[in-house]
Amino acid sequence: MKVIILGLGNFGAALAIRMTQLGHEVIGVDNDAHRVEEIKEKVTSTICMDARELHDLKYLPLDDADAVLVAIGEDFGASVLITAQLKQLGVSRLIARSMSGLHRTVLEAIGVSDIFSPELEMAESFALKMELKNVNNVYHISQDYKIVESAVPKLMVNKPLSGIDFAASYDLNLIAVKRSEKVRNLIGMASTEQRLHSKLGPEFILLEGDVLVLAGSVDALKHLYAVL
Length: 228
Description:
Blueprint: E1 2-6, H1 10-21, E2 25-30, H2 33-39, E3 45-48, H3 54-57, E4 67-70, H4 76-88, E5 94-97, H5 101-109, E6 114-116, H6 118-131, E7 135-140, E8 145-151, H7 166-170, E9 173-184, E10 190-197, E11 211-217, H8 218-227
Parallel strand pairs: 1-2, 1-4, 2-3, 4-5, 5-6
Antiparallel strand pairs: 7-8, 8-11, 9-10, 9-11
């Protein structure tokens, strides 16, 4: 995958580096020479330019990119201007970062449908994690729908799934169970690794230390931990 990321602040730089590590071809763009210099050895290529200038923006290989991502956050004006110009240039897959409700509204008004708000999503996830003490991780699906990783409640330990109806009793879907299991390598040395069990029959028994991967509404998740 070939991706162009405009804006190499903390988020943009981290994203560019990680996507490069995952094997994607990444072009990082920023008008700050220091930011470009900092990551030039960690991504496929970097360009120092002012993407607000339409004349300069046209020199980027936009037609060859699978996605163009505007990661600019703090500079509202630059974010909107660059995004609007990329729409004008007919970028096939345009993704834009939003920092506020107003920012999102403006991006939607200029025709951007793929908008993400990492800071807001992280804040929501962390707030829910703080509220639900047994939750280890929260994955944002929508405003009211989450996927969480949670320690198995004590009342469910050593019980088969046949006696626990998550859908009917708690309005939640059990997607998988993570379990720490002892394994041996080729030379017989033992170690512990976490395995994911996704084919869960009614005979599957929950054990102490298991981690449930649950999907459902915020209210349903709160209800589960309120009653257990």
